[in-house]
Design goal:
By secondary structure, the chain is α/β, with parallel strands linked by helices. The chain folds into two domains: about 90 residues, Rossmann fold (3-Layer(aba) Sandwich), CATH 3.40.50.10860; about 130 residues, 3-Layer(aba) Sandwich (Rossmann fold), CATH 3.40.50.720. Helix content is about 40%, strand content about 15%. A hairpin with a 7-residue loop joins strand 9 and strand 10. The longest helix has 22 residues. The radius of gyration is 19 Å and the shape is globular.
């Protein structure tokens, strides 16, 4: 059994990006600039955005953090988005989700300039991804592809089962794993809350990508020997033995499933670190594209 070490691979990617940024500076070029908008004071969101800012510092990117109060109106947020769209110094930006109830998330995501949508959530970019065109791939699916690629996990002709159909992970993964090329060329089954006999489906899978958010959902008896497991789930579970009062748990019963798996991602330290690394990679791609225009 091989651990797909997202922490190590993400550090490798950051080192590679740092090297490219150093060369850009040597040529006198402007370095990539990533911005993030956060509305309100959600603890998990603040932590996540903070780690993005630190990641930018590490690789030599410029970064801007736009903090807006939880009472921000939709109009005010759309004005801020328009400002970032028109700022030629910013290559890409993200709007941290979730947004407060008074704001229409869909309207906000549609307002983002697709050329600066380094999260890959805009319908234009999602459509291009579905058509195998060059575009920004959402950071988490992009990270999963990179893990499979760097560990040389065979995907061609394999049966991939995706658990969960979110627009951020499940649905894009089902498209990407079925595309021509590597990683890809697999036969994909997309499962969700209305899927019947899910154990019958998962037990036939060569590769399982679980993005459900239900702790320890995938048990050993639901998988076959030598399965490849990608665990995207990340849930805080109360645990009095831990200093913080909780532990981070994935969708997979890691202890038991790992005994049957050929490759498996840990939680934490698997897919999570890859998401930020690929957000940086998308920002670098955005910067390169803007330079060519």
């Amino acid at each position: 059994m091989t651990i797909l070490d997202g922490k190590k691979v993400s550090n490798d990617i950051k080192d590679e990006i740092t090297e490219q940024v150093t060369k850009m500076k040597a040529r006198g070029e402007r370095v990539p600039h990533l911005a993030a908008i956060i509305v309100g004071n959600d603890g998990a969101s603040l932590t996540y955005v903070g780690s993005k800012v630190r990641a930018c510092e590490r690789v030599g990117f410029e970064s801007t953090l736009v903090k807006m109060s939880s009472t921000t109106s939709e109009v005010e947020l759309l004005d801020k988005i328009k400002e970032l769209n028109n700022n030629s110094q910013i290559d890409g930006y993200i709007v941290q989700l979730p947004l407060p109830d008074q704001i229409d998330t869909q309207k906000v995501l549609l307002a983002v300039n697709p050329d600066k949508d380094v999260d890959g959530f805009h319908p234009t970019n999602f459509g291009k991804m579905a058509l195998d065109m060059t575009t920004f791939i959402p950071a988490t699916p992009f990270g999963i592809l990179e893990l499979l690629d760097r560990y040389g996990v065979e995907t061609s002709g394999k049966h991939t089962v995706v658990i969960g159909r979110s627009h951020i992970v499940g649905r894009p993964m089902s498209i990407l794993m079925g595309r021509k090329g590597f990683p890809g060329n697999s036969t994909v089954t997309l499962t969700h809350s209305h899927t019947k006999n899910i154990t019958q489906i998962t037990s036939q899978a060569d590769i399982i990508i679980s993005a459900l958010g239900v702790p320890n959902f995938l048990k050993a008896e639901m998988v076959k020997d030598d399965v490849v497991i990608i665990d995207v789930g990340i849930t805080r579970v109360a645990d009095d033995t831990k200093e913080k009062g909780y532990r981070i748990t994935g969708d997979v019963d890691f202890v038991n499933v790992s005994k049957k798996a050929s490759y498996i991602t840990p939680v934490p330290g698997g897919v999570g670190p890859m998401t930020i690394a690929m957000l940086l990679k998308n920002t670098l791609l955005a910067c390169e594209r803007h330079r060519k225009k």
